[in-house]
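**Protein record**
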Amino acid sequence: MTSQAKENGTQRRSVPSREALSHTDRAVNTLSQHHHRSRFDKSVTAMDQQIKGSEADKMASRSSSTRHSERSPERAQPEKPQTEIARAASADSRSTASAAPLQPRTDINTDVTLSSTAVSPLALRVSLPPLSYAVSGPKKPPSLDRMGPDVQHAVIMEDLLYVLMGSEGQYIRFHERYNPSVEADRLSGPEFRLAKGLDPSLRDLTKTLLKLATHRSSVNAFIEIQSKTEYGVVNHALCAAMRNITKEYLALMTDMEYKMLTSASFTLNAFHIETMDIARKLSELNFIAQQISRREEPATDSTDELGTDFDKIMETLKANDGNLNALNNIGISKTTSMVTKGGGVIKLLTDRLYSVSGDPALRELLTYLMREASRPYMKMLNLWLHRGIIADPFNEFLIKEQKSIRRERLDEDYTDEYWEKRYTLRKDDLPPQIGDARTCDKILLAGKFLNVVRECGGVDVCNEIKDVPVTIDDPRLLSNINAAYAHANEYLLSLLINTHKLSERLTSLKHYFFLDQADFFTNFMDVASHELRKPAKNVSTSKLQSLLDLALRQPGSITATDPFKEDISVQLNEIGLTDWLMRIVSVSGLDPSDVDGMQLTTTPPVTDKSSERDDKKSITGIQALQFDFKVPFPLSLVISRKTILRYQLLFRHLVALKHIEQLLGVAWLDHVKATGWTRRSRSVHLQNWKSKAWNLRAKMLVFIQQVLYFSTTEVVEPNWCTLMAGISDVNTVDALMQNHVDFLDTCLKECMLTNSKLLRVMAKLMSACQLFAVYTTQLSKTLLHIDSETAVADSGASDKVKKLESILSQYEQNFEHHLKILMDALNYYAATETVVLLSLCARLEVCMVAESRVGQ
């Protein structure tokens, strides 16, 4: 008998006539009539020859004993193998049974079909044989009750060999609950039922060995199912490792069959002892298979599944510019979304390895499985670390790529989506070997950096990756990650700083947005003043751009030699600076996430009635003016749209201060040149009013100048020097990007643009200064007219002078009241948040006291 002779539906061998059979031959034929399946010709012929040889030996032994009884009275008989004992004993016990030749069974379908395709590579393609409980017929094998212990032992040994190879035996059958066509039943493994009448000692030992058959069938089913394409390369590697272990099992079964056929001393106990080692291995493989299969069962809450599918749909729509027809080409499968693969499989193997670390045999087995399963995962990891490339067709790597986020959209990316969302971590089921958050960040950033360099043509993808760990338990894993991270940082830093001249770009930004050495801006404001006085909706952006280009190219200007002047452009914002910032800081204060999410079309929260009135007013061109700056890739990763937005906020703040300073300067020129202001009035009340107006204008000018000086000299400049010093000392690209964002956030905070109370007070003070400057500039002719009227009347203050005094008093009270609130707030926030505000508070206090003394 061989391991191949086990399928129903094969051809049967013809049985010779009764006259030609010997006594032993008739016994074999009688027992074989009750077998429900046939044997191959080769195995049956081999057994016939073995039995006939045994019969010939007995005949020769009897003849020799008759002729030589005097010389050899006692002669040992040769041992009979287990199969011959079983068949001869069964024939003797059933000598009265019918010895008619076997007839072919017509109620069993013996056709064997071969499927054109398999469920997975190397999976079984042969059709399943009919199950014993599904076949009807009166013929049954001899009852075990009529057999002695030795015969039971022999027939059970023979049945066990068939069962351990996946087939049914005569006395060991599949349970009716088991259906091999159902995937869940095959993964759980078959249950068996033993024929009645088996000796209790044999029954217990047989049940123990049947667990091996269950585990073997379950592991084989797991290998076939998990080898499907959608289960990923890690599962494929794990199945390949399990298949190697099942090959050892097949070799062992071949050896067991040979011993059973050739050795009479080979017992069921010896069978059990020989299979104990492989039984432990298959039991562990079955446990792993059940764990992986159990994690893939559908959960009651499908939120994660729906989220994954939704992300896939949105990514496809973005990649195809909203084309709905592209959805027909994507595959959203419930099976795929619930598959345990990639890092989840490695994590499961690692956790199991830790739990059985005290068992040397199982530790060795699980170490082998983990190493083999991690090889494709490590190949993907090394490709990402050393090339910045993701080769992950089955979405099982720890880095997830969103291909819909493209580099071409960086000009519209106000949230750093390309850098922060194109490559992200799959935080679930990370392998414990690299599950540390810091290590995962290094892996993510190393690949990101190299991906940037590769897109700029700086990585040679042709060179082979050498001397890297190929299994996840390699002790060089962490050192390889750290080395790749350091190399990627060094490579990208060199590309940004040396090749693309990051420092020069930042210096150019300082000139344009922080008005450093901004002689061009003064010229621009002069030539564009008429256009900028218009409402923002009536301003021509193209005209402003032309005027800016003229100012930038003016000979002698510092920007005339700037190589990046072509990248600057003019924009007009639809919302005033104060309103824009109040929409954010009135909720939670300005932080990086708030700036990331700012959109021009955001609906503003309800604050107070004054802000509602301001929203209804249209802003002027000077209030809507802002610059934009084009930055090429890869510098756009550091100088991103998110950072440009911060530059624009600071620029608009400085421009507002510059504009009010210019208006107060124009008012001062009018006060010292216009006749109505310079000529001494005959009315004492009018002259006193002029003195008060001069004093208030001087206070306002000092206030604006001190705030402007503080913002540029004590906030922007020191932080700028810190940033530029850090560029030469920084070791990582991520630190460089963070330093740049921190610099801008610090400037916004210290310029009082992130605190709602300071922002409101500053807005009211600046509005009062602007209104007063415009108001006094328009009073020259009015003062001459009032002065002439009071001279003719030769009386006390006229009604017009009283009205002027009332208006001026309101300006004074408003300015001094809000200035006092500002100084109190500066003292408070200097003690609790930003100490640099104390400098501004001291400057304002000294200057206001000095101006008050001068006015007196």
About this structure: The chain has a mean pLDDT of 77. Residues 684-729 form the longest helix (46 residues). Residues 116 and 482 are 49 Å apart (CA to CA). The first strand starts at residue 172 and ends at 174.
